[in-house]
Specification:
The protein is α+β, with helices and mostly antiparallel strands and 376 residues long. The chain is built from 16 helices and 11 strands. Helix content is 45%, strand content 14%. The strands form 3 sheets. Strands 1, 2, 3, 4, 5, 8 and 9 form a 7-stranded antiparallel beta sheet that branches. A two-stranded antiparallel ribbon has the order 6-7. Strands 10-11 form a two-stranded antiparallel sheet. Helix 1 crosses helix 3 and helix 7 runs parallel beside helix 11. It is globular and about 55 Å long. The N and C termini lie far apart (42 Å). The C terminus is likely disordered.
């Protein structure tokens, strides 16, 4: 059995108080992590744009069992550190409750971002997950991204985990996507014919004053500027480790399938820009509980049909690396219990503090799992 290409995972988490209000104490929690762990903690846990956020960076894995253990351990450690600071860490895409204006992390690059985008960054507390899958070259990375484009909206729908905005139900499954859409160039990446063309796009956007540097873009997938990987950054932070592993499985399956297509001389399909934007919007609005848009066929279909299309598209590659059984189990759980957005709404039925208690990372478990039977 082929173990598959390497995979790594980055997760952004939200710091809140007991009522769900964002609390800008990342420095305090990061200090506790560094005091409790070895010096490597500074590479594993990092500050993010806002002081209400902390990022966790996994190691590099070839098997999903190792990735799962890695993600679980990180969530346990982060939850324990926050507990010691009388705070909670939520694995959610947006803050469930509104708080004071956000405090941008003291860092020259973050300060430049704030200066460039103004109020948009001051109020932007969205948390996402980034999946890195190893590739062989920059040229291959660009060609793989072209193949990924039609499938990114359904990944958004499966991973939707941000229904709340300013203490209210937004009506969206992923309000984070709506928040991100305010930034220039958000959404699906453009089709690029080569690595040079991709780099030229970034350079032009910098010259136009849209991006602050060549490390920055708002596209949902891109060749990583730091690692020999394709970076898929389409989805909300996962509610559970299961949800995170599912995204890693599906993303790696898509990358494997793309490479197989490229080896057969098949390039990524063209997609109309307006249809692509509509597909992203529908995924954010409805998650898996309504219609989706097939970007290639240019028609509305049930979201569950797009999930079926996705799993059929990557079935051979999942089987080759031994991921079929786990992918089926995890997708079945999402169909049975709902996306993270659905589970958040159930948990918040008795008030936002109930959501905090149900979703917070704890020192004993990676997540205090929501008991659907109890209606908690």
């Amino acid at each position: 059995m082929n173990h598959g290409r390497t995979v790594g995972f980055e997760e952004e988490f939200l710091l809140v108080d007991a009522t769900g209000v964002p609390t800008p104490e990342a420095d305090l929690v990061l200090g506790r992590l560094r005091a409790d762990l070895d010096p490597g903690a500074s590479e594993r846990f990092k500050p993010e744009l806002q002081k209400v956020q902390i990022e966790s960076v996994s190691g590099v894995h070839t098997g999903m069992k190792g990735l799962r253990s890695d993600l679980s351990t990180a969530r346990q450690r982060l939850g324990a550190a926050a507990d010691q600071c009388d705070l909670a860490v939520l694995p959610v895409g947006t803050a469930p409750a509104c708080g004071a204006p956000e405090d941008v992390t003291t860092h020259s690059r973050y300060e430049r971002i704030h200066q460039r985008y103004g109020e948009m960054t001051r109020t932007y507390t969205a948390c996402g997950a980034h999946v890195h899958v190893g590739v062989d070259s920059a040229e291959q990375a660009v060609a793989v991204v072209n193949h990924l484009r039609p499938w990114l909206p359904i990944l958004v729908a499966i991973g939707a985990n941000s229904p709340f905005h300013n203490g209210r139900d937004s009506g969206y499954s992923s309000w984070r996507i709506a928040e991100q859409a305010r930034f220039p160039g958000a959404g699906l990446p453009p089709f690029s014919r080569s690595a040079d063309e991709y780099r030229e796009r970034i350079a032009i956007l910098m010259e136009c004053g849209v991006l602050i540097d060549d490390h920055m873009s708002f596209w949902m997938a891109r060749p990583s500027d730091a690692y020999p990987t394709v970076e898929v950054r389409a989805v909300d932070t996962a509610a559970t480790v299961d949800d995170a592993v599912l995204q890693a499985l599906l993303t790696r399956g898509l990358v494997h399938t793309a490479i197989r297509k490229l080896e057969a001389g098949i390039e990524g399909p063209p997609i109309d820009d307006q249809i692509a934007a509509a597909a992203v919007w529908a995924a954010a609005r409805y998650g898996l509980d309504g219609p989706a848009i097939d970007p290639i066929e240019q028609r509305q279909v049930p979201a569950v049909q797009m999930v079926k299309n996705l799993t059929e598209w990557i079935a051979d590659e999942l089987e080759e690396v031994g991921d079929t059984t786990e992918a089926t189990r995890l997708l079945t759980a999402v169909h049975q219990h709902g996306t993270g957005a659905t589970r958040q709404r159930i948990a918040a039925a008795s008030g936002l503090p109930g959501l905090v208690e149900s979703f917070r990372l704890t020192s004993e478990f990676a997540l205090a799992e929501l008991s659907l039977e109890a209606g908690a």
